[in-house]
Amino acid sequence: MSTTTATRRGVPGRAGKVRPGAGPGKGAGPRRRDRLSVQNLPGWMFSTPFVALFLTFMAVPIVATLVMSFTDFGLTNVRDPFSTEFIGFENYTRLLDDERFTTALFNTGYFVVLGVPLTVGAGLVAAVLLNSGIGRMRTFFRVGFYAPVVTSIVAVAVVWRFVLDPADGLISGLASEVGLTSPDFLGSKALAMPSLIIMAVWRNMGTAMVLFLAGLQGIPTEVREAARLDGASMWQEFHRITVPLLRPTMLYVCVMTTIGFLNVFEEPFVMTEGGPDNSTLTVSLDMYREGFSFFHMGYASAMAYVLFTVILAITLLQLRLLKDKTR
Amino acid sequence: MTAQVSDTASRTLHKGERSGRRLTLTALWVGVVVMVTPFLWMVLSSFKSERDLGASPTVWIPDEWTLIHFRKLLDLLDMGSHFFNSTLVATAVTGCNLVFCSMLGYALAKLNFVGKRPLFGLVLGSLMVPHNLMLMPMFVMVSKMGLIDSYAALILPFAAGAFGVFLMRQFMSAIPDELLEAARIDGAGEWFIFWRIAMPLVKPALATLAIFTFLQSWNNFLWPLVATNDPDKYTLPVALATFAIDPTKTNGSNGVLMAGAFLVVLPVLVVFIVLQRYFTQGIATAGLK
């Protein structure tokens, strides 16, 4: 455990920021440093592999998706991409009238609006509990809470489908032990999405917890002690000290969780196939089907860009809303 | 270190705080039970006989432990080759990331060159771009190149992740400049300095990056699903998912599915429990900036 703290203290950008100030000690002043330390050739040589892969598998495809979203790119164009025809904004205007897509947008929103706060909240609660001096057990609990994060979503979705099975599942077994019958979670229009959300919270809260735990350990104990000496209650300490000082962590956790949740795909793909009656159809799943079942790739590209725009907008909004106001 | 401090602190706690601590522990136990139960259910179910699986009231612990589901699974799915595919792809992706991300991380942290700042901006920005966005053109590109069903198609798009660059840059900036400067004065080239001085100093970060990349690749689903048609080339998650959503293959047997999920999850869970220190350390470093 001591190594953990030691490395973390040593690493972050702070140390790097201080160093330039220590420069004058080196003597020769800024001009000589600049001349000596410009290393264009090695700099770019070291960057080449990343840049090449980035251009091929990110930059070009990002632009290509945008271009494709203005075309009627279909199955035949996979062999002959340049014979596709530009159709202007038609894909986008069609999306507006596409009831399935608006349903998918709504479902994805539902998943994010409920899932993200629950995940972040559960992670924060677990982190605060783990940080309240429980000694050696901390590692054990941390491993337990984090375990679902490392497992394959597909495998976990397969397991949860059986857990929620109305006939032989875990929940129905527990329910019948106490004389209740369990509903058909994944077969019900009303319960399918909440079930997927619960599963997503279960799987992802570990990430939030670990990040919050790191954030909490970064809060100096003196601050807490001072608050306690001044007679702050547990709630006041949490509300006035912990939460404000956790703001940067909170921002990062919220942004990353939201991006991940907006792209939700595996859970409905494996557990419900978007059903019943499209009630768990998400944008990514709809896009995958349009693109790779029907090969309406132009149309699917427009969907991808709508989703990407939403992601960018929400990320920027979160950055603005949650930004550290004390700076 | 922290554990010791809190131990001594707990000895001097007041009575009220002690009951608070008991409450905390209870809550944590309940939480952990909820987290672990689905895994337990998976393991137990994969060893239950078909009769126990369908029994009402539910049989929690198998009456007789059986390997029949694992045998059936191995008949239905070529788990060996899926396992091989997943391992090969994840290993290659990890190796590439360790080298490429460290190279750029080193350059961004320790070298001055034209275009360094925009390049770092690019790395940060690409953290936010979902892979779904690139799916369609990547598929077209890969099929034009005849790389569908090839390992290259599964490896190259993930060979240099932005997260890795970010992580390595942070660790590389903690290396004292004087050390590198001394090597330069002695006439060492940047390549030598990178491999012989910088890389050995960031071994813990490399371990963290290796674990994360391997896991991410092992669990990756959407791109392998799109980029492979030949079942022989399926990675484990793709094989499991296509198997799970096809009732004609599973015959509705949950036992077989649980056995499959168990085999996919097991190696990862073992690695995680053995190396758990690196996980939490790594994710914390990346998050704190």
Task: Give the topology.
The complex is a heterodimer of chains A (327) and B (289).
Chain A: H1 2-10, H2 14-18, H3 29-37, H4 40-68, H5 75-79, H6 90-97, H7 99-130, H8 137-150, H9 153-163, H10 170-177, H11 192-217, H12 221-229, H13 234-245, H14 247-262, H15 266-271, H16 283-292, H17 297-321
Helix pairs in contact in A: 7-11, 7-14, 7-16, 8-11, 11-14, 14-17, 16-17
Chain B: H1 2-11, H2 15-46, H3 50-53, H4 68-76, H5 79-110, H6 116-126, H7 135-144, H8 151-155, H9 162-172, H10 177-185, H11 190-201, H12 203-219, H13 222-227, H14 236-244, H15 247-250, H16 254-274, H17 276-288
Summed up, what is this model?
Chain A has 327 residues and is mainly alpha-helical. Helix content of chain A is 72%, strand content 0%.
The termini of chain A sit apart by 31 Å
Count of distinct structural domains of chain B: 2
User: Structural class of chain A, please?
Assistant: mainly alpha
Q: Which word captures the global form of chain B?
A: globular
Summed over residues and divided by their number, the pLDDT of chain A gives a mean of 83
Task: Encode the helix/strand succession of chain A as letters.
Answer: HHHHHHHHHHHHHHHHH
Q: What is the N-to-C order of secondary-structure elements of chain B (H for helix, E for strand)?
A: HHHHHHHHHHHHHHHHH
**Total number of helices of chain A:** 17
How much helical structure, as a percent, in the residues of chain A?
over 70%
- The general outline of chain A is globular
SS content category of chain B: mainly alpha
User: What fraction strand of chain B?
Assistant: under 5%
CATH architecture of the largest domain in chain B, by name, is Orthogonal Bundle
Mind telling me the C-alpha Rg of chain B? Answer: 24 Å
Biggest interface reads: A-B, 125 and 112 residues
Query: How can the largest sheet of chain B be summarized?
Result: none
